[in-house]
Amino acid sequence: MRFDVITLFPELFEPFMQHGVTRRAYESGALQVRLWPLRDFAEGPYRRVDDRPFGGGPGMVMLAEPLRRCWETIRAERAQLGLPAVPTLLFSPQGQRLEHAVVAEQAQASGAILVCGRYEGIDQRFIDQCVDGQISLGDFVLSGGELAALALLDAVARLLPGVLNDALSHQQDSFNPAIAGLLDCPHYTRPERWCGPQGEAAVPEVLLSGHHARIEAWRLQQRRDATLRLRPDLLPAPCAPVADSKR
Ligand SMILES: C[S@@+](CC[C@H](N)C(=O)[O-])C[C@H]1O[C@@H](n2cnc3c(N)ncnc32)[C@H](O)[C@@H]1O
């Protein structure tokens, strides 16, 4: 799997690729990330990648032409290496929300060309002609698409075999279909009794019991309770009552 990332700030990616469990995904080659500094594809003495918006207004807009040149270079390189054709995804507040289903789909795919916007955004003509899908991190505005790209890459890396210490670990995570898309249960570790600012707190007794079935039942109930309390939208909608035809 290879992601090609078009960005004005490639240096933002490197620290994330060198630390943590996801580093294994990059080191093993399970997840390849090729960074493409957009300025390398700009022309002129100032290597401009942006200009003022037609129609006036604040801010600058990313030029379509350096993006096209970079995008075509990526596609040509991928073809030359025999890599499969992949979709081009733009990070944008207007895109589809980045959720587990999107991450799981990407973890099964061959990669993508990821476009990180900056400034007021990208010339719409590049989006219309070269972009297949748009992904949003949420209903807020970031300064650039790099954090969103990193979020996607990190979440994909966690799902790849051999990246987490325990292969089944991600299946216990919130939103995973293996736990019916529920939220995760609470976790505890040593010491058994801990004194916090609100007094002494003990680990739930069941977790110390060594009784595997009881522990699993407790965790399932905790997941259901947490989901109902914090994210009821994740639970299946209750069935509508059947109309009584005899009335
Ligand atoms: C300052 S933003 C532009 C926001 C744009 N004018 C708007 O209001 O929709 C610059 C870039 O950051 C990225 N970005 C900002 N917010 C984002 C979000 N919620 N999710 C994904 N990418 C985002 C996009 O790539 C965007 O082109």
UniProtKB/TrEMBL annotation:
Pfam families: tRNA_m1G_MT. Residues 1-235 form the tRNA methyltransferase TRMD/TRM10-type domain. InterPro entries: Alpha/beta_knot_MTases (IPR029028), tRNA_m1G_MeTrfase_C_sf (IPR023148), tRNA_m1G_MeTrfase_TrmD (IPR002649), tRNA_m1G_MTases_N (IPR029026), tRNA_MeTrfase_TRMD/TRM10 (IPR016009). S-adenosyl-L-methionine binds at residues 117, 137-142. It is found in: Cytoplasm. One of its GO terms (molecular function) is tRNA (guanine(37)-N1)-methyltransferase activity. It catalyses: guanosine(37) in tRNA + S-adenosyl-L-methionine = N(1)-methylguanosine(37) in tRNA + S-adenosyl-L-homocysteine + H(+). GO terms for cellular component: cytosol. Keywords: Cytoplasm, Methyltransferase, S-adenosyl-L-methionine, Transferase, tRNA processing. GO terms for biological process: tRNA N1-guanine methylation. HAMAP family: TrmD. This is tRNA (guanine-N(1)-)-methyltransferase. It comes from Serpentinimonas raichei.
